[in-house]
């Protein structure tokens, strides 16, 4: 709520051009003709016969109704307030700084069948499957990216957008934790996952774009080779970090093609990592945090609150004051008129009484004559 003590230096008008309407009443007075109305100045019955009897000829006249100075002042003030309200005055508040995300960070997680291998060792010495280790480390990583918008792609036989870019980290983590091994198919469509990330980035207006891909196998199901997809990503200024979380000595579909991962990172000016344990995976994310520090844009703005209702309130107050003054003037004028009528009646009654009580002293009454 705006305080009544408004600093006029903080008031601006949204439509200041409407102040050109201020001289409009003067133009109307100067150029518009005066309103005329024809009516009889004296209204009596049988006016025509009265004219014939008296022999007088009716003449035309004019009466100009003029306002007094107080009415003129109130009229001018009301018009000024109306134009001010139309110009929409706004109170400019104190500057407010608001931070928003300056980077879109997409995480692509491999859900192929090989992610079920329990070869990741936790800090307490227990072993978990590769996806569980990825979820645990990603949770710590995401919670430290407060000013980044995170997206999530899950891929197997085909890539799926699990979460579009969002600043809601809790929801993003909930969607990550709901993912299960094999829910996207047993194969690895690594190149198609990059292609899906490119299409999502196209809808983003942020210039800082980063894709982190976690996979434990080579590409076996993509329609677009990963290297070709990386060339397109580079054209869209997307930086890719690849993390190989499988065993490089493995064969078949579980084999990690480190040469392809390094080529992808090189093409997009990113980096390639290997993580064979939970500790190594955490170290990879720490290095990514160092290479990609949080970015956020500081937006400065001053809130604007419309106060056009204040001039309208003043117009209503002026109208009420004017109406009250007019009513008071008529009230006192009526009282004066009534008092004058009463005084005139009293004077007339006194004269009548005096005339009736004053007679000829030499006159006699009938009773005296009879005597």
Number of strands: 13
Q: Which value, in Å, is the CA radius of gyration?
A: 47 Å
Strand content: 15-25%
CATH superfamily of the largest domain: von Willebrand factor, type A domain
The end-to-end distance, rounded to whole angstroms, is: 102 Å
Number of domains: 2
Give the helix tally. 11
The average pLDDT is: 78
The major beta sheet can be summarized as: 6 strands, mixed
* Unreliable residue stretches: 361-371
CATH topology of the largest domain: Rossmann fold
Q: What is the correct CATH architecture of the largest domain? A: 3-Layer(aba) Sandwich
| Helix-strand topology string | EHHHEEEEEHEEHHEHEHEHEEHH
Question: Given the helix and strand composition, which structural class is it?
Answer: alpha/beta
Instruction: Give the CATH level 1 class of the largest domain.
Output: Alpha Beta
Strand line-up in the sheet with most strands: 8-7-4-9-10-11
In helices, the fraction of residues equals 40-55%
Principal-axes geometry comes out as rod-shaped
């Amino acid at each position: 709520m705006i305080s009544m003590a408004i600093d006029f230096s903080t008031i601006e008008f949204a439509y200041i051009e409407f102040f050109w309407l201020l001289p409009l009443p003067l133009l109307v007075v100067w150029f518009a003709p005066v309103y005329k109305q024809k009516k009889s100045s004296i209204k009596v019955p049988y006016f025509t016969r009265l004219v014939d009897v008296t022999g007088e000829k009716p003449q035309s006249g004019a009466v100009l109704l003029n306002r007094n100075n107080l009415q003129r002042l109130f009229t001018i003030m009301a018009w000024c307030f109306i134009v001010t309200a139309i110009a929409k005055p706004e109170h400019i508040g104190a500057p407010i700084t608001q931070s928003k995300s300056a980077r879109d960070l997409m995480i692509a997680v491999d859900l192929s069948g090989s992610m079920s291998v329990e070869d990741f060792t936790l800090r307490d010495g227990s072993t978990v499957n590769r996806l569980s280790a990825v979820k645990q480390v990603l949770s710590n990583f995401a919670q430290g990216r407060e000013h980044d918008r995170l997206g999530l792609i899950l891929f197997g036989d085909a890539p799926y957008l699990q979460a579009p870019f969002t600043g809601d980290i809790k929801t993003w983590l909930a969607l990550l934790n709901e993912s299960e091994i094999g829910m996207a198919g047993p194969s690895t469509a690594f190149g198609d996952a990059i292609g899906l990330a490119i299409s999502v980035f196209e809808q983003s207006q942020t210039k800082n774009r980063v894709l982190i891909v976690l996979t434990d196998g080579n590409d076996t199901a993509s329609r677009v080779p990963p290297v070709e997809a990386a060339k397109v990503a580079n054209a869209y200024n997307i930086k890719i970090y690849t993390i190989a979380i499988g065993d490089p000595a493995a064969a078949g579909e579980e084999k990690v093609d480190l040469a392809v991962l390094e080529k992808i990172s090189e093409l997009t000016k990113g980096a390639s990592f290997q993580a064979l344990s939970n500790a190594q995976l955490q170290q990879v994310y720490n290095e990514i945090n160092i290479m990609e520090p949080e970015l956020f844009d500081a937006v400065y703005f001053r809130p604007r609150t419309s106060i056009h209702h204040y001039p309208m309130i003043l117009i209503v107050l002026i109208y009420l004051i004017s109406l009250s003054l007019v009513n008071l003037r008529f009230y006192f004028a009526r009282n004066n008129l009534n008092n004058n009528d009463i005084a005139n009646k009293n004077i007339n009654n006194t004269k009548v009484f005096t005339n009736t009580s004053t007679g000829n002293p030499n006159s006699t009454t009938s009773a005296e004559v009879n005597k």
